[in-house]
Amino acid sequence: MDYKFSLLDDQSDLVIGYCKNVIGLDDKPNRDGDSPLHTVTFIDFVFCDEFKTYIASSKESIHRLVYIGIVNHEKKVIGKYPFHIYDRIFYHKTGFPEGSVNVILNGNLPYVITSEELDIWEKWRASYPVALNEWTILDEDQRRAWLKVVSTYNDNRRDDDESEQKLFFLDGTYVTDYCSFFCALGEAIRGPGGYYGFDFYSFIDCLHGGYGARAPFTLIWRNVQIAQKSLDLQVWVKEIDYKRKRDFELNEEAIFEELGNRPLFQAIVENLQEQGVTVVLE
What we know:
By secondary structure, the chain is an alpha+beta fold. The protein is built from 9 helices and 11 strands. Strand 1 and strand 2 form a beta hairpin. Helix 4 (140-155) packs parallel to helix 5. The relative contact order is 0.10. The model has no long low-confidence stretch (mean pLDDT 90).
């Protein structure tokens, strides 16, 4: 059976089960007091025998930290998202459902997974990107989703032995907004589908190691005139407004504090240089 999702137990490292679909991943949370509350439905869910045995022995409830995994056609996890289950269901008392059933769980999903992200994951279930610039056919929201997907996917394949390479080439042909810069930067450093940050903060984290290049290094930015023209002050303000709105929706307060006081292109180059990256514009 072609399962698309798995549920992974953080405590035991066991696979709780597999399912064909998940509903509720892109829903805004309700509020249970001060805590966000998501209701997630796992369609045609099948519990794994090993997890059943573990629960029968430990006599624990299902109240726990788990991960919702996206699996490829070989049932290998290619991406995962945390989910804190609030429900206290004691399956060792009630018994596990037989066969496949729809399982409804309430909890906290820290990262809302958009429909655009799920569409990209569906393609990656069959094949990871093998060519550069596959993201260029996507619109702006889809490119944001692409960055979320590559960041989640590449968390599973960090580079323990980093390359000594200190020269990288960024193709600026399609760099026309904030997210497209990070799509191009990730592929400049790590190849097709590569990740090297989805904003300035995560970019700085990457510079400290584990993602293919550690500062200092040199970045040759080709076809830079496209970004110089496109990444103006208005584009930067638009990005700031988007992030503040998103933060407010998820956290009830804005945490994105960048200032839109200069063109976005200038802000990008300054951030690169401040972190020890030599930028050569071509």
